Amino acid sequence: MINKKITGVIFDLDGVICHTDKYHYKAWKELADEIGVYFDEEINNRLRGVSRMESLEIVLERSEKIYSQKEKLALAERKNERYKLFLREMSPADLSDEVRVTLDELRSRGFKLTIGSSSKNAGFILGQIGLGDYFDAVSDGNNITNSKPHPEVFIKAADFAGLNPAECIVVEDAEAGLIAAKAAGMTAVAIGWAYDSEYADVSIKSFGELNLLC
Ligand code: B16
Ligand code: MG
Whose CA is nearest to atom 5 of ligand 1? Predict the structure, then answer.
């Protein structure tokens, strides 16, 4: 149980509400193979919550070739086109019952529910899984200039929904997101890949536990 007044919950999208992380991996892996750069799941884990262009920089750390900015933009675009093909296959079946029921319960208890995602595809993904109009506010990669671990995405999510940051919890699967949440003055709740992170205020094993926390 969190011992302070909570009025809003800000959810990371990829790795928390739904699992597009496997599609990011496949799309980056295909690109890396094409340009002859080593890439594996461990490197992929460093991309969680990180913006597309920053992710590309991490992927290219293993590259012998130096790419110009124009070439980098083209590579990122190529990866994104691949990724979007996977997203097109998503449907409301990709939203688990546990997540859907927990969201409804939190809402019925009066919490404002928002999204704080680094992704520029967040709106499309939410539409695909049937949550297009669900959240009180969506802050994503399209409205920020600094990506996680910078707190901008969460500060804007709170602002869009008229929430006091000190009364918000952030649910995150990435260490960069937990750091961002704390920098925003919010309570950082870790799930999934971030479960053991030293930056978490609280860690939960399953999404449904959120209802016991606040
Ligand atoms: P896009 P989140 C993040 O989403 C992903 O975790 C990260 O792997 C990705 O690079 C980033 O979005 C940007 O995504 O290429 O779709 O703009 O976890 O912050 O919801
Ligand atoms: Mg995430």
Answer: 49
